[in-house]
């Protein structure tokens, strides 16, 4: 594997699962692959889980790590071409990226949707430049449109907790005070579409995901109906795609609560975290024994390590 | 040792001293204990000595380290229960803590008194939640009411520099432009009470430490009288406990100066640092040969390593 | 080598080149020298290349590293002597430096010119205190007046790309929206003066470098004339030394462009980065095949490692 940007980068879903379960079992067995190799983790946006889990994964592999918080440790980077750079930004990605690539063997990069320009976001303007200019493999630690390390961990978690071969998995929109990117939802759907699970997406009207991501997945606008017989409830807020970046609803009747969970097939509750308690989900649900958000987060380390193993094996 | 929050967590003072002197002599002898083990250091408040000394101690033990500056690298964390999280804080400690615990083997956490609510501070609201939810050992890198790594280093330093079996140790309040927590003073008294040293605390009226900490230790309101025949002068500012978090005095007549040091038994001068020169202590005293603030700070690495050794041995 | 502050600290230019080319060839061959050794990197000013390249160099040597961003991770440090510290700065360099020195084996420090006081800057007030009080070797990661790791990398780069024994090297001032320190220019001249290259410096009137640095190096005020037959064009902005810290010109006729590069002997284009495109240099020049800014930046890791090797060998 050269880069890890979307589900299309893995050889196959089954192979990815095999590697993940192997590194979970044997986290320190592959340090020869990472010896004297360095990963730089670049954050255009702040991070807790992604930073710690990816850094831990790299250390499990025997790698050295360096973390760079752009706009904090470093500086503002220009990303537009042909600009006369006499403003705030002292450096262009065209220099910064290949230079960083000289100091490491793998780059991880996080760059969220900015909601200023749908075209910029959906072309993955920042991550695409990293892939083009880094000269070393690039791992998305969440781009503008996808969060593949999260979705890969979601898949591993469902595989670990599923009680039947083909579980019903429901992605439900939930309210939130801020406008959040579609990356987690897009990416979750993209990965689930590669499985043979029964996938249902539920959200208020106006929150339809981008056509390329949702494809022909079933959308059910009645949340309660969607929950019926579900084995997994995956809650997530996202801002509107059609009214790009807008909050169309903060309707708390979409909060995942005990009453709705009672409609399911004793479903497990999932969320990528961080989660707004009593807005996205009630204390009762997230504190219940069916909540698997912590083991789900723990699998972020596992899949980050699996990705690094697949990359290091081909260096 | 499971957690390190107060002097009560160590098996015995003598054992703690033995371990400290051993790791000081042999800093790299125990790396097998830390191999493939990771410590996450979480700072709700900024740090220089504590961060560097604890990280260095962990590396001496062969551990990997990851540093998280909450409110900077990460984000604001909610700590109240039952809140509808529609405000500034996107994540609750109830998720953040166990998730961080999944990515490491030991957590170090620094969370100062906020002086907003005495009950919150003196119940160690933040560190207590870490102990309860982390799932891995927790080391206090200074809580709201105690700074045990500092006090342990203070003890080691006094043992190294004492000229008699039972030295007279004086903790003196000193003026400061800001309202500082009582943690260092509380914790110093708590540790000294476990020794057979002669301990005297001196401060202006209104600066009495919390009853649980001061116990029946001698308080002398006349600073000069307290200094007589002292072998160690430990200076520190703290805000009032009774008038909680208030500055009652900035009286520079409490500054530790050469004239007062002349009253002592050629006492060593100690301070946890950072120190305000010519406010807490004069240049003349801190620059004198009797000032041991640098070796005292150096012992922060030693005791942090001793704590990690005791914890790792029981993992 | 004890400290690395200027070209005067290296045994000889030839030895420095030999060490650099050796560690470039064998980056992981000297990890026994760095085992259980720690480098603290202290940044009073932000950094991308310097931080990553120096940290990488230290890791290549098998060292542990800790990064401290003063004014961010830590706190404001007082540097004046005799001050009554009742203001913003809670700690003095007189304590901070020796304490940091207790937790590591080598200190790297970056502290730019502040342009408030020429005397403070040109006496290297901050770095000089580190050298005096650290108790361990100090590596300048850019001081107020010099950037020796950069100049050393510049030298290595010229040696790698030169087509003749004694190339003509031109340092040209270029416009910039901000007032930048003279450190890179000073230091470049200082190192080039140790070679037998033909060195020419070109800049508008009023931008003369400090006499100690420029010495008797040829200054040519006609930029185009300076470029004639040049083998290397090194572009850099700096603020005025005589009108200390002032911007006297933003004249875009000094921008390095294709027309001027055509006057040279097919010269390579160099810049220390970060660079303002279409202000300091046109896209056409920096994107041309003659631009060697990326390999030049890559050599920052090489020379930082060479410096650490020379220091560690004498610890």
Describe the structure.
The structure is a homotrimer of 315-residue chains. The first copy, chain A, is of the alpha/beta class and 315 residues long. The first copy, chain A, has 2 domains: 7-146 and 300-312, 3-Layer(aba) Sandwich (Rossmann fold), CATH 3.40.50.1370; 149-297, 3-Layer(aba) Sandwich (Rossmann fold). In chain A, 36% of the residues lie in helices and 14% in strands. Chain A is built from 13 helices and 11 strands. The first copy, chain A, has helices spanning 13-25, 31-34, 49-60, 93-102, 118-122, 125-133, 148-161, 183-192, 211-214, 223-227, 258-261, 283-286, 293-312; strands at 38-43, 64-69, 77-78, 91-92, 106-110, 138-140, 168-173, 198-202, 218-219, 232-236, 268-270. In chain A, the strands form 3 sheets. A 5-stranded parallel sheet of chain A has the order 9-8-7-10-11. In chain A, strand 7, helix 8 (183-192) and strand 8 form a beta-alpha-beta unit. In chain A, helix 1 packs across helix 13 (293-312), helix 3 (49-60) packs across helix 13 and helix 7 packs across helix 8. Chain A is globular, with a radius of gyration of 19 Å. The termini of chain A are close together. The mean pLDDT of chain A is 96. Chains in contact: A-B, A-C, B-C. Chain B binds chain C through residues 27-28, 46-49, 51-53, 55-56, 59-60, 69, 72, 177-178, 273-279, 283, 286-287, 293-294, 297-298, 301, and chain C through 36, 38, 40, 64, 66, 68, 72-75, 78, 81-87, 90-92, 94-96, 98-100, 102-104.
């Amino acid at each position: 594997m050269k880069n890890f940007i979307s589900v299309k980068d893995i050889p196959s879903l089954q192979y990815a699962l095999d590697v993940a379960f192997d590194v979970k079992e044997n986290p320190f067995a592959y340090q020869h692959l990472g010896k004297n190799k360095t990963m730089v983790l670049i954050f255009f946006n702040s991070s807790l889980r992604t930073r710690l889990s990816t850094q831990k994964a790299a250390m499990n592999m025997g790698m050295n790590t360096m973390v760079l918080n752009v706009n904090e440790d470093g500086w503002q980077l220009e990303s537009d071409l042909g600009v006369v750079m006499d403003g705030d930004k002292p450096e262009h990605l065209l220099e910064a990226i290949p230079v960083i690539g000289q100091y490491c063997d793998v780059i991880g990069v996080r760059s969220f949707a900015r909601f200023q320009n749908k075209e910029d976001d959906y072309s993955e303007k920042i991550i695409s430049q990293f892939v083009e200019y880094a000269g070393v493999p690039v791992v998305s630690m969440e781009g503008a449109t996808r969060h593949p390390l999260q979705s890969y961990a979601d898949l591993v978690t469902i595989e670990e907790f599923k009680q039947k071969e083909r579980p019903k998995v429901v992605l439900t929109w939930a309210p939130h005070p801020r406008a959040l990117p579609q990356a987690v939802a897009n990416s979750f759907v993209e990965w689930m579409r590669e499985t043979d699970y029964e996938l249902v997406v539920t959200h208020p009207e106006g929150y339809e995901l981008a056509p390329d991501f949702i494809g022909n997945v079933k959308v059910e606008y009645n949340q309660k109906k969607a929950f019926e017989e579900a084995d997994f409830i995956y809650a997530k807020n996202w801002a509107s795609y059609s009214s790009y970046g807008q909050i169309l609803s903060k309707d708390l009747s979409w909060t995942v609560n005990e009453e709705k969970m009672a409609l399911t097939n004793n479903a497990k509750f999932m969320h990528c975290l961080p989660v707004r308690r009593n807005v996205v989900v009630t204390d009762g649900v997230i504190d219940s024994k069916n909540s698997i958000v912590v083991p789900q987060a723990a699998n972020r380390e596992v899949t980050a390590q699996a990705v690094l193993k697949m990359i290091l094996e081909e260096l």
